[in-house]
Design a protein that fits this description.
The structure is a homodimer.
Chain A lengths: L4 E5 L7 H10 L4 E7 L18 E7 L2 E6 L3 H12 L6 E8 L6 H4 L1 H11 L4 E6 L9 H16 L7 E6 L9 E4 L5 E12 L2 E12 L8 H6 L2 E6 L7 H10 L3
Parallel strand pairs in A: 1-2, 1-5, 2-4, 5-6, 6-7, 8-11
Antiparallel strand pairs in A: 3-4, 7-11, 9-10
Helix pairs in contact in A: 1-5, 2-4
């Protein structure tokens, strides 16, 4: 029997500690195929590149590990893997481990999560992992253990259809993590503050911001789980229709 | 009473015919505030820029029309408008009219739709319009009429909460458009074909592709509507949780 083929994506680039962690973690489970942007591409969402050509470089080709980098976005890289570089459809896609949170609506802006949605569009079980720290040299020991446990849980699922998971891990020592919670995505927004900086006599704007939780205290949300020491697992949909609203609008439609 | 304030976004840039169309169409309904990427930014999804500063330039400041351009993405531009440039919260956000389809999962990759989701996060009624042609000099006469009718319909809605619409308009003469249909988003994927091009002795890859409809013939989908001469209106959700899957996974959870 063929070993499972696991496609690995990320948005922090080829040399991030989170990527090294996920490669190390997944080695026992199958043949790994890494295809990521060579440089960091945070905040790229599901951006795609079709107005210029993309570069692909092979970094490694060892038994059990093929490793490619591109100069595209995370989604470009996954599309290149699926449609050009891989000789068969992968069995799983794993993205991350991202340096920084992708909970609540940050999932929308995230290249890590964007890559996972591409896996879901291709109908393979796909998981995004993110650790709640931006430290380049973060301690991934606890994150790796829990990510492994979650991956084994996915392996064990009888029904692997529509497995498209956004996993966020609090940055806590292992003994302070309270467990894993299946959650829904928190509704909220980012309240940006653009810092003004003068560059060559011109005012330019640097995006910073803080998250505003519209559902503070809702115990079934990912924000609540993370705030309370749990790992948050949100199943994502590839259908962005608001079905409730669709029904309501049909009732008042004038067409 | 203050006139409604309408924020206008797009991803085709400041000089696109679709933007000129939407400005002309919306002038009778309120004060317009345009904030868009100066150059085209198709396929930018909800990408955001926080690793460099952003430029903002004022193009116009006339009664009823303020017009700014940025060197950021469509979502950057909307965030700049909300958080830096506008003196009050807008009453509506309209994005487009995009040159090219944003139906089915193309909505995910689209900067036009990305901008609209940002409006939804800020809880204002938001509409993305796209016309199914990439022609720069497309004929927008029919599209403008129908877009106006849809905007007036939104104005007339008693309950404007969660109005977050993705509207695609077939590129047909007005008398061949059969009407407007409220739809759900089609499930499908893009099957990419990367064209190989030699640049300076190196093989590079150009993304092209074709859409694969997983639900061909489903009459309640946007793809069906467009194929059959209807304008497709899909209400989008700002909650990307797969609630059905969440329930199922809770039943088999080992945590």
């Amino acid at each position: 029997m063929q070993k499972p083929l696991i496609l690995i994506a990320n948005d922090d680039g080829a040399y991030s500690k989170g990527l090294a962690t996920v490669i190390n973690m997944l080695k026992p489970y199958g043949d790994l195929f890494v295809c990521v942007p060579e440089q960091g591409q945070s905040g790229q969402s599901q951006a795609i590149t079709f107005t210029r050509t993309l570069q692909v470089k092979k970094l490694k080709d060892e038994p059990g590990l093929r490793f490619y980098v591109t100069d595209g976005t995370p989604t470009d890289s996954v599309k290149l893997a699926f449609n050009k570089l891989l000789d068969r459809k992968p069995d799983f896609l794993v993205s991350g481990i991202n340096h920084g949170s992708n909970s609540s609506i940050s999932a929308y802006y995230s290249g890590t999560v964007g890559a996972v949605l591409e896996g879901c569009f291709h109908e393979i079980p796909s998981i995004a992992f993110s650790l709640l720290t931006h430290l380049e040299d973060a301690d991934f020991v606890a994150a790796e253990k829990y990510a492994r446990r979650l991956f084994e849980w996915v392996l064990s699922l009888e029904d692997k259809s529509d497995v498209c998971l956004n996993v966020n891990i609090p940055y806590l020592p292992e003994n302070e993590i309270k467990g894993i919670k299946l959650c829904r995505q928190t509704i909220g927004k980012w309240q940006e503050e653009f810092l003004e900086q003068e560059v060559d006599g011109e005012i330019r704007y640097l995006m910073t911001g803080s998250f505003v939780n519209f559902e503070d205290g809702a115990e079934d949300t990912d924000e609540w789980a993370l705030k309370n020491g749990y790992i948050a697992v949100v199943p994502l949909s590839r259908d962005s229709t608001n079905h409730d609203k669709l029904k309501k609008l049909k009732d008042v439609s004038i067409f």
